[in-house]
Design brief:
With about 80 residues, the chain is an all-alpha fold. Helices cover about 70% and strands about 0% of the residues. The chain is built from six helices and no strands. The radius of gyration is 27 Å and the shape is elongated.
């Protein structure tokens, strides 16, 4: 119950230190993440997406009208036939 009261006071008062001081509380600390940590996280995320083959909707979308109608195999066939 004490945690719930503390959370309620912190949420209601925000960064108003006067109100928090009435309840003998301090504002929540905002975590500081270093640029090196952010770069490492981005690299790790990119490696995970590559390893799992995760793609967004644009990457998943068929590249031509023929692929939409007949599938990727047909599109390759049409390209080979056009070259010959």
């Amino acid at each position: 119950m004490a945690k719930s009261l503390k959370d309620m006071v912190l949420t209601a008062s925000g960064k108003d230190t006067a109100t928090l001081a009435d309840f003998d509380l301090t504002p929540r600390k905002i975590p500081v993440v270093s640029p090196e940590t952010r770069v490492a996280a981005a690299k790790k995320g990119a490696a995970t997406r590559k390893a799992l083959g995760t793609m967004g909707s644009q990457q998943k979308a068929p590249t031509s009208f023929d692929e939409q109608l007949f599938g990727a195999d047909f599109a390759g066939f049409v390209e080979l036939r056009a070259v010959a």
